[in-house]
Design brief:
The protein is α/β, with parallel strands linked by helices. Helix content is about 30%, strand content about 15%.
Length: about 160
């Protein structure tokens, strides 16, 4: 199952069909998207719902594209404004936001049986690296995809 956040998972065109098409089950909705300040919470809630409906013996591979790390992320930092834009500090605040809620995801995944999970962004972002800001450019920081893969063992 995948729970996408960015447009590559929205099934609204040829490119948005590719990644979801690699999974038996895929989920995307605007609440999971980059413009939602509560995107990761919504993604975790969907994972909780899906997992709760699975038979205990069914295997699950979960892929979550954590869109909260994508721009815009200014709204994750108290006092930041849209006009000021995204910064390393707002990106760090987005990561802290994900960290605050990832425990729920882990709890859901380990509630049944061993689960293989991948949680990732879709690319990195430059914040002044080499004089560049953003992600629509050829730069090592953009090519480096923040992710983690791991097995979650069943809770006792």
């Amino acid at each position: 199952m995948c729970i996408g956040g960015v447009g590559f998972f929205n099934k609204q065109g040829a490119l948005g069909d590719v990644l979801p098409g690699m999974f038996q089950e895929s989920h995307w909705e605007p609440a999971f998207g980059v413009a939602s300040p509560t995107s990761f919470e919504a993604q975790v809630e969907r994972a909780e719902q899906v997992v709760a409906g699975l038979p205990a013996d069914q295997r699950l591979f979960l892929f979550v594209n954590a869109s909260a790390l994508h721009q815009p992320n200014w709204f994750h930092s108290p006092g930041a404004t849209r006009a000021a834009g995204d910064t390393r500090a707002t990106h760090a605040a987005a990561l802290e936001y994900v960290d605050r809620h990832v425990g729920r995801l882990f709890a859901a995944m380990s509630a049944r049986r061993r689960c293989f999970a991948i949680v990732c962004s879709d690319h990195g972002t430059t914040y002044g690296d080499g004089g560049y800001t953003g992600h629509r450019l050829a730069h090592e920081a953009v090519w480096t995809v923040p992710y983690a893969h791991f097995f979650l063992e069943p809770s006792a």
